[in-house]
Amino acid sequence: MSATLDILFVADARFEGGTSTALAVEIRAAARAGLRTGLLAIKGPLLGLPFPMHPDLRKLIDDGLTERIDPDMRLTARLTLIHHPTIVENRPTRRLSITTDKLLIVLHHPMYDGNGRRQYDLDRVIAHASDAFGADVHLAPVSAVVRDSLPRLLPPYAHMLEEDWGNLVELDDWPAKPVRPPAYPVVIGRHSRPDPLKWPTAEDAHLAYPADGSRFRVRALGADAYLAEKYGTLPTNWELIPFAWDGVPDFLGTLDFYVYFHDPAWSEAFGRTILEALATGLVVILPPHFAVLFAKAAVYAEPAEVESVIARFVADPVLYRSQCEQARRFVENNYDAAIYSDRVARIIGDETTSPAGDGLFPPLPQRNVLFASSNGIGVGHLTQQLAIAQRLPPDLTPVFATMSYSMKAAVQHGYQAHFLPHHRILEADPEDWNTCLAEELFELVAHLRPTVFAYDATAVFEGVTRALDMFPDIFKIWVRRPLWQESHRVFLEFSDSFDAVIEPGELAETFDHGPTAACRKEVFLVPPVLHLDPSERMSRESARAALGIPDGMTVVAFQLGAGANFDVKDLRAALLAEVLRRPDTIALEIQSPITPNAAGLEILGERHRTVELFPSFRFSRAFDAAISAAGYNTFHEQVLGSIPTLFVPNEGDEMDLQASRARWAELTGRGWMMRRDYDLGFAAQHVERLLDPLERAAVIRRCQSIVWKNGAVDIARYVEDHARMLRTDWDITKLGST
Amino acid sequence: MTPPACNICGSSAFGDTYGKAGSAFIRKNVRCEGCGSLERHRLIFEVLRMRGLLSGNRRVLHLAPEECLATILRNRFGGNYLCGDLDPGQFSFPVTRIDLCSDLDRFAPASFDIVLHNHVLEHVACDYKAVAARLDGLLKPGGLHIFSVPFLEGGFREALDERTDDYRTDHFGQWDHMRIFSPEDFLQTLGSALPVPEEYDATRLVPAERLFAINVPEDAWRGFNNNSVFLLEKRQPEDAFAVSPATHLASARPPHRPDAVLFVSANGIGQGHLTRQLAVARRLKHRPAAFLTMSYSAGIVRDMGFPVHFVPHHALSGEEPGAWNARLATEIELLLDAYHVTTLIYDVNFVFDGIIEVLRNHAKLQAVWIRRAMWPSHHASYIGAGVHFPIIIEPDDYAAALDAGPTTTDRAKTTLVPPMLLIDPSERLERGAARQSLGLPQEGFVVLVDLSRSSNPDLTHLHGRLLDDLLARPDIHIVELKSPLTGNVAPRHPTRHRLVTLHPAYAHSRAFDAAIVRAGYNTFHEHIAGGIPTLFVPDESPDMDRQVDRARWAQERGAALMHRLGDGEAGLSAAIDRLLSADARAALTAACAAITGARWQNGADVLAGMLEGRFDGEDTE
C-alpha cells in the first residue's frame, strides 16, 4: 500500500540549533493548515557525535503532528523538502521508494564560509537528491546571503526558487517583552548554540561586550568553558548561561539590548537567533553586513561603536521604544509562521487537504534490534538491555545475543535469545574463538537484518567488531557504563567501531576518574538506567504477602552476589548472624537465576530464607533494609528505590569500581559501606546502624531527595529514532575501495 | 496616549516628505523614518491587514513599488507578487521592467487579485485612460484595484509632447509629470475610465481613531487629495448577489492561530438552523469552525467533523432562565477562548440574553446574525435584538414575495444572500449510485416521505394515512427519513417501506422519483433547486416559520404541489395521483429549473467567502 503525504520533510533531525527549530515551526504550521506531513530523518555527515533527535521535532512526532517515516516505506508526496544541503552531499545508502511531485532543497547555509572555504558541493547535493527522489531539484535559499553565494549556472534538472525560504517564527512562542526604558547598568545579551565561531575575535568581544560592570551587564546563553578557551579570563560582569533547549524567550525578556557579533570565519546565513531577539522586541545591534537581512529592524554598528549606540538609546526612551516596536513588527510582517501555508500552496497548489484523507497512515515496517552483551556470571548488562528493550515501541522487535548465563531472563520476557559462549567456559584459544564469534554474529546479523545493533559490555571483542565491519549501514550503539578500572582502558579504542556511545549516568559520577571520564563530551549521556521504575514496584502489602512475611517482622534483604570472583563467605556469615540475632528479623537471601549452587547454602533457621526473585526490585517495598553488593543495577535500584542499604562492594579485578559507589553512598548519607578486607570485625556495629529506625529514615529522606528520571527511556527513544534513520554520514561510493 | 506610529514598521519617528522647497507636495511630519511610508501607504496597509488580504494565494501586481510595501508583499506572496517599473535601475531590490504604455498585453486579463499603484498614472506617457482600463482588466472578478494619484486645483491638464522640466513643474507639479489630476473634474477624467467613487472619505475604509493612530492626518481624510486611496472592487459579471467584502467581515489580522468561527444555534427537535450553519462551516477553507447548539441533532455536526458543544435549553434542563442565560454566556466565552474565535454566527430568531451579554463583553467579536425571513408575526418583538449584530445575513427565500412577516420591515441593514444549502444540487449522487447505496431497486417508483419529526399531532395523523394510501398502490416504494430521535418504528410493508437515517439526505435525493415533505426552509429550497417533483405538506404549527406561504408560492409557479391539513382525505388522494403522473412531474421539474435559472449560487458559499475575505472568483464557484 502506498501512503500519500502533502509534504515529506527530509532532515537531519539531530541539529541542535536554528535548522531544527525552523523545521519544527514549518511542521507545526503545516499541521495547522491541515496538511499531512511526514519526517524522514537523515543521519548526515555534519554531526559525528551521538546527538539525539531535537526534542522539538521528537515532540511533533509524539504529538502526531507529523508522521515518522521509515526509509523503506512506499510513499507519494506532493512536495519533498530537504532541509540543509549537507545531508545529501553523500548518496543515501539505501534505495528509496518515494515519489514526489516537487522536490525542494532548503539551503540553510551559504556555499562558502567567511574564509572562503566551500561548505558543501552543490553539484553533488543536486545530483544525489535528484537520484534519490527521481525528480527535478528546486533550490530554496533561506536568505539573500545564501542566494548570492550560489553559482549562476545550474544543471538542467535544477531550478532556483524565486522566493527566499525564510525562517519563520511562531509569534505566540516569542511574546514581546514589556517596553521599559533602559537605564545604566543596561543588560546586554546574546544567545547561540555553544560554538566559539559564534563569538567575535577577542578584541571585538571586549568592545562589543564591555567589561565596565557599572554600566553593563552581559548575559550570554549558550556560553560556557569554551569562551575562556577562546578569550582567556573573562570579565566579571559576563554571566554565562549554558545552552538549553527551552527558556530562551524568558532569557530574552530579561535583556535591554541584543548584541551579536561573530567570528570572521563564520558566515551567518540568516541568524535565527537574531530573528528571535527581534520578535521579542529588543533593540538589536549587529555588524553592518546583516543590514541586507534585517533592514531597519536592527541597528548596525562596528564593535567599537556599540557603547555609543547604547548611550544614544538610553538617552532617548522614545527612540528606544520605537526601535523595539520596529523589531517586533518586522518579524510579524515578514516571518510570521502564519504565512507558511501560503508559501507551500504556491508550490503545490491550493488543495490543502490530503487526497487520500480516508485511510489511516500505514504502520511503520517491523524492524529488528539486536542486543548483544557479554558477562557470564553477571546479569547486569542483560538487565540494562532489557530495560531498553521493554521501552521500545511495538514496531521494533528486540532480539538478544548474550554470553550471560542469565539468558533465561530475556527468554522469560518473551524475547528471542541466542547464547554466545565466552572463550573461558569453552577453554578455547581466544584467537580461534574470535574467528568463530565473528562468523556466528555475521550469520545472525545477516539473518535478522537488524536496523540497530546495541552492544552492552565493557570489553569489546574483536569477533564483534569484525562482524560489524561487514555491515556498515547498521546503526551500532555501545552502551557503556562509567566507573571503569584503569586496566580496561584498552577497550576505549573500540569506540570508533560504533556509531554512538551511550553512557548511562552514575550517581557516584564525581568519584569517577577512570578511562571513560575524559570522553564524556563524545558520548550521549543519559540519567541512570533502571530496569523497573521504582513506582512500578508492588505495594508493600502485596510484596510481603507474596513473600509470606508475617506482620511485624523486619526484613533484611541480602544480595551479595554469587561470590565466584570475590569471596564474601565469611562476611556474609557474620552479617547473617548479626541480623538473625535479633528476635524480629527475617534475613531474605535473594538468588539470581544463575546462583550456581543454591543447595550449598546453609540455612540458619526458619527466619533465614532464600528465594529466587527476578527482578527482585519488584518486591523491594517488602524490605526494611538491605545488604547488597554495589553493582550498577543493584546500587541504583537500592538508592533510587530508597531502600536503606549496607553496600558491600565487590572488589574483584574484572569489576567496575564498586567501592567508589559504596563510598559515595556512605558520604552522601544515601546508604552505608562495609568492605570485606577492612571491616570484617565491625559487622555488629554495621547491622546495629542498619536496623536503627532513625538512621534508616534519614537515608530514605536523602535518597528521596534525588531528582531522577529513567535513562532507559532516553536510550529506547534514541534507538527508536535511529532505527528509522536514512544514512548519508558515510560515502557508500567508496565502499570496498579501501 | 500612545503617540502615532507607523503600522507598517512600528516606528514612531516621522519626518517631512522629500521634495524641492516650495513644491506643492511637501508635507510635514508624515514620512515614516523607519520604512519611509507615507499616509497613503499606511492607509493601504491598514486596509489590507484589516481585510485579511495579506494572506492567501493571491497574485499581486505592484507598480512603481514602494519598498515599505514591496518587502512585505514579496515575503507574503512570494512568486505570486510581481513588481514592475519603467526604470528598474532606481530600485535596490529586483523589479521587472514594465512600460505601461506597451507591456500590459503581456499579462493575461483577469489574472491578478490585487493591482496596486500610487502616483503612477500622472507619469504615463500615453493615454492614461487606456492604461487605467487595462490595469483594471487585469483583475479577476472580486479583485481589488488600489491606487492613488496627485491632485492640483485648476482642472485636469496634460501634455504628452516635449516640454521643459520647468514647464512641467509649473503646470503639473513635478518635472516628470505628464499631467495632473484635479479634484473638480476627477469624475469626468479618470472617473470616465474607472468606477471611482463620487466622494472620498477615508473613515469609510478605516475608523477615525485608527487613522490618527497610524498618522494619517485629518486633512487627508476627505475629498480628492494626494493621499486619497481608491479601492475599486472588480465586479462579478452579472452577479445579483455580489456581496461587498466588507471590512468588518474579514478577519482583522493574519492570525497566528487561525481565527475560528463559532456557530451558535437553538432548536431542540429541528435541524434547520444547524444544517444551515453546517452549510457555511463546510465551505470555510481557512478558518476552523466550532458549534454550540441546543439541538438534539448535535451529532450531525460531530459526524461532519466539527467540534460541537450541546447546551440544553432551559425548558429542558429546568434551570431558572436568568441562571441559564448566565451559564450560556459562560459556556460561549469558554469556547471563544478555547478555539480562538473571532466571529460568532448566531442563527435563531430569538436572541437569548446570554448571547447579548457575550456580545456586550466582547466588543471585538464579530457578530453575525443569520436571520431567515418568513417569520411568524408573533415573533415581531424579537426583531429589536438586531441592534446587537453589526451584520445581519438574510438567506433569500424564494417565496419572499409572499412574506408579510416582521423581518420585511427591517431589511435596511441586512445583507441578502442566495438560499443556503448544505449540499449543492450538483454535489448529489447520481441516481443509480444513490439507489444502490440506499438498497433500492434500480427500477421501481420511489417516493421520499419526510413528515415525521414533528410535534404537530394533526400532521402525525395525516402521515399515517398517507403511508397507507401510497402502499395501497402497487410498485410504489417509500423511503422515509427518520432521525435518531424517532425511535423504533416498524415499517408498514416488509419490502416497500423503508425507514432510513440519512444525513445529509439530500445527497441521495436523485434516487427519488417524487417527494412528500414539509416546507421547511432547507427542504423547500433543496427540493426546488434540485428539481425534485414534490408535494409539500406545510407544517402549520404556530411556532414554525411560514411553511404554507412557501408551499403556496411554489404551487402558484407550478413548481410543486401542496396539500394542507385542512384539505381533507379526498384532496390528499388527488394530490398523490398528480404527483405520481409522469407528465405532471416533468412539468414540476421544468418549473423548478425556471426558478433557479441556469446559474445556481449557494448562499453558504457567499457567506463563507465573506467570512474569509475571499475576492477571487474561483473560490466562490
What does this structure look like?
Chain A folds into four domains: 3-168 and 338-348, Rossmann fold; 171-334, 3-Layer(aba) Sandwich (Rossmann fold), CATH 3.40.50.2000; 367-526, Glycogen Phosphorylase B (Rossmann fold, 3-Layer(aba) Sandwich), CATH 3.40.50.2000; 538-709, Glycogen Phosphorylase B (Rossmann fold, 3-Layer(aba) Sandwich). In chain A, helix 8 packs across helix 11. Chain A contains 25 helices and 27 strands. In chain A, the strands form four sheets. In chain A, strands 1, 2, 3, 4, 5, 6, 7 and 27 form an eight-stranded parallel β-sheet that branches. Chain A has a seven-stranded parallel β-sheet with strand order 16-15-14-17-18-19-20. In chain A, strands 10-9-8-11-12-13 form a six-stranded parallel β-sheet, sandwiched between helices. With 738 residues, chain A is α/β, with parallel strands linked by helices. The two termini of chain A are 40 Å apart. Chain A is globular, with a radius of gyration of 30 Å. Chain A is 31% helix and 19% strand. With 621 residues, chain B is an alpha/beta fold. Helix content of chain B is 28%, strand content 16%. Chain B contains 17 helices and 23 strands. In chain B, helix 12 (457-472) links the parallel strand 18 (445-450) and strand 19. Chain B is elongated. The relative contact order of chain B is 0.09. At the A-B interface, helix 11 and helix 12 of A face helix 2 of B.
The gist of it:
Chain A is an alpha/beta fold and 738 residues long. Chain A has 4 domains: 3-168 and 338-348, Rossmann fold, CATH 3.40.50; 171-334, Glycogen Phosphorylase B (Rossmann fold, 3-Layer(aba) Sandwich), CATH 3.40.50.2000; 367-526, Glycogen Phosphorylase B (Rossmann fold); 538-709, Glycogen Phosphorylase B (Rossmann fold, 3-Layer(aba) Sandwich), CATH 3.40.50.2000. Helix content of chain A is 31%, strand content 19%.
